[in-house]
Specification:
The protein has 212 residues and is mainly α. The protein has helices spanning 2-11, 15-39, 43-55, 59-67, 73-83, 89-108, 113-142, 145-210. α2 (15-39) runs antiparallel to α7 and α3 (43-55) runs parallel beside α8 (145-210). The chain is rod-shaped.
Length: 212
């Protein structure tokens, strides 16, 4: 804690925007991790149960099984398709597509801010660096011999602290953005795969019943 306070003091005014960016980035990361954790489910097991129910002509049972789960994105998409199980294939597809369009923005919510915050942290650190160098050059040009060394050291210290602080915030933010984006893409791919499989299963079932 003492080191943080010391760094804030030595880094000058640019340290406050960097700290603000760090707080916002941390809040977004925590919120996204919690959301992804709540959205994650065993898609293979769920799809296997749904497939068995559809092949057994027990779509209502599949709906009850999905109701036992929370409102996870995959469950919402599958429920949307099963609720239209007795309609035409285009209607089923439209219902699934509509559900997908509802859950995707929720999965990607706020994630796009992380690269922007990383860039802001880096540029703010650069701005602080320039401010520190101005202080150092002013000391060389105008300060008296007694204070020149002190002001020069303070200027260089400000420049280094702000540069380092901006990078310390930006680098983990970019890494976490990549991880969150990867997890989100994986969840979206699972939803796409299961949605496509569900529509095909319901369409095959309808065609089989139509032949009877």
């Amino acid at each position: 804690m003492e080191f943080l306070l010391s760094a804030m003091h030595k880094g000058g005014p640019a340290m406050w925007p960097i700290l603000t960016v760090a707080i916002f980035a941390m809040l977004i990361v925590v919120e996204r991790v919690i959301t992804i954790f709540r959205s994650t489910c065993n898609a293979t097991v769920i799809m296997h149960l749904v497939q068995r129910c559809i092949l057994s002509r027990e779509a209502d049972r599949a709906l009850k099984l999905l109701s036992a789960l929370r409102q996870r994105p995959l469950v919402r998409v599958l429920r949307a398709g099963l609720l239209c199980a007795n309609r035409t294939e285009p209607e089923i597809q439209n219902a699934v597509d509509e559900a997908v369009l509802e859950v995707y923005p929720e999965l990607n919510k706020h994630t796009g801010y992380l690269p922007m915050l990383a860039n802001v942290a880096t540029l703010t650190g650069l701005l602080g660096t320039i401010h520190g160098l101005i202080i150092a050059f002013e000391a060389v040009a105008h300060a008296s011999a007694e204070t020149k060394q002190t002001l020069l050291a303070a200027g260089i210290s400000t420049a280094m602290f702000t540069t380092a602080s901006g990078l310390v915030v930006a680098i983990p933010t970019l890494i976490l953005h990549s991880l969150i984006s990867s997890w989100t893409t994986k969840t979206m791919d699972e939803i796409d795969h299961c949605a496509f499989k569900l529509v095909n299963l319901l369409a095959v079932r309808q065609r089989a019943e139509a032949r009877r």
